[in-house]
Amino acid sequence: MGVVERREREKQALRQEILSAARELFANEGYESVSMRKIAEKIEYSPTTIYLYFRDKQEVVQEICRETFQLLTRRLNAVLGEAGDPVERLKAGLRAYIEFGIEHPDHYRVSLMMPCKEDDSPNARKFEESEGAEAFRCLTRSVTACVEAGRIRNEDVMAVSQVLWVAIHGLTSLLITHGEQFPWIERSRLIELTISTAVAGFA
């Protein structure tokens, strides 16, 4: 490995270390309580070093969200791309979403449960252009397949998709925040009941 390649790998490793530290801090302390200095202290670097990689903490959050939704989209595409009954594929996609949140609670908290400042910079992207929108389109495509197969009676794909997302996001958020504090029924049964009930409402 040459010097240039090694330096680039070191830069990427440090960038990822910054993101990992920031993700943990944001998830545990909230957006307002975390500063660039606090992120730097967690990884034992100077704040100046952090600013070489990110403009401000909003940009750090945006990168965490981008990373999260890319991971989620890959997971959903792998499940929804399989052959079979469209309704069963839809249910599998909803299940994969919940499992993703449980497996990556800090990613999920920062990207989907934490209010943060809206990016009003000139280069800010609209939601429709974001990785989050692409993840949501996985759901709308799956719902569309069910409608086209005559398996869902409501042809308002966006309405159905949003209702289903509300259901699984609510469950995912509760399992992350109150996973041990509430006497839930067996987890897999709770997930299956939530998904089957939500989907059956449109059958």
Features:
single chain, mainly alpha, Tetracycline Repressor, domain 2, 2 domains
Describe the structure.
The protein is mainly alpha-helical and 203 residues long. It has two domains: 1-54, Arc Repressor Mutant, subunit A (Orthogonal Bundle); 58-200, Tetracycline Repressor, domain 2, CATH 1.10.357. It is built from nine helices and no strands. α1 crosses α6 (105-113), α4 packs antiparallel against α5 (86-103) and α7 crosses α8 (157-178). It is elongated. The N and C termini lie far apart (57 Å). The mean pLDDT is 93.
Describe the protein's topology.
Layout: H1 3-29, H2 36-43, H3 47-51, H4 57-80, H5 86-103, H6 105-113, H7 131-148, H8 157-178, H9 187-200
- Based on secondary structure, the structural category is mainly alpha
CATH architecture of the largest domain: Orthogonal Bundle
**Helix segment count?**
9
Describe the biggest sheet? none
Return Rg in Å. 19 Å
Count of separate structural domains:
2
Overall mean confidence score, pLDDT:
93
Q: Can you give the helix content as a percent range?
A: over 70%
What are the segments in which pLDDT stays under 50 over at least 5 consecutive residues?
none
CATH fold node name of the largest domain:
Tetracycline Repressor, domain 2
Instruction: Find the CATH superfamily of the largest domain.
Output: Tetracycline Repressor, domain 2
Sheet-strand content, in percent, reads: under 5%
According to DSSP, the number of beta strands is 0
The helix/strand series, from N terminus to C terminus, equals HHHHHHHHH
Q: What would CATH call the class of the largest domain?
A: Mainly Alpha
Distance from N terminus to C terminus (CA atoms, Å) equals 57 Å
Give the overall shape, derived from the CA principal axes. Answer: elongated
